[in-house]
Predict the 3D structure of the following.
Amino acid sequence: MRVALGIEYDGTSYNGWQRQKTGLGVQQRVEEALSVVANHPVEVICAGRTDTGVHATDQVVHFDTDSDRSERGWLLGANTNLPDDINVSWVTLVADDFHARFSAMSRSYRYLILNRLQRSALHRHRAWWVYEPLDAERMDAAAQRLLGKHDFSAFRAAGCQASTAVRHLTHISVARAGDWITLDVTANAFLQHMVRNIMGTIATVGLGEEGVEWITEVLESRDRKAGGIAAPAHGLTLAGVEYPAAFGVPAAGCSQAIRI
């Protein structure tokens, strides 16, 4: 049978999602826990790899098994064997043609900024602390210029191995609630460091160092050096992955990302 799971994790202590020869990835801990429950080695495939320090409220994975366990059994068994910073949120049996990565229609991320003079001890691993005042409305106006299908070469990491930089952003918004600023973004797929580079670039606009129209110049340049810094990884959370309804995978999205 093929089993799909929703995974929540705090990425602070991990070198990203992927299992690695050196360092510890979230994937390794998930596979170890599921292998105990299945009583055989388990290899999981994820919807999207996250980088070192990046979190997830609804990473989606799938794996194949001959072991006969109930959905409840998989969930409770996995969580019993996982560390406190990784948690299985849901489990569902899926058709054999479901694929956590290739069946996904879109992914959603949330980036969180704490914008005030004093830092936060409790949120030091969950939000980018920016003490200079940011104009969230200007940031949102700049972000809207990225909507649609574009070549996002100016927002990809130098080491990004994607075969094309063309991506389709279907939603992007910046909003303020008190001292907190959130960037919510949805696309068919993302390039390495893409959301962090977008956040760092629109933050430059929010600080008043560049105008709203500058974001278009950066996008059209297709040059990473033309934009702003990469925002720190710890402010970023994979918030959800959308699949065709026929697969019966629980829906999630930015609404389930970290809230203050």
Summary: The chain is about 20% helix and 25% strand. The beta strands are 2-9, 45-46, 55-64, 86-94, 106-114, 128-129, 148-151, 166-177, 180-187, 236-242. The radius of gyration is 19 Å.
